[in-house]
Task: structure prediction
Amino acid sequence: MLAPTASLTPIHDAPAQDRALHKAAMNARVAAMARVMYETSLQSGGCTADDLARAGFTAAEILEHADDARALAGLIDQEAA
Result:
């Protein structure tokens, strides 16, 4: 719960708001891809671009986010151990 004196100030800088929303969406997409990589690797010993495409990721998303997702999937794997 917010403190009684706390207030939320609207963002009036639309480009900054757009960048923030884009970053949040990309972080969520990377996390989703990492989860697919991790779970697919557990089931079949690895995860390919075809596996990601079957999970609903576009070729552009795979190119853009695979490295970050792979790194995050590695962190997920370490936490599960």
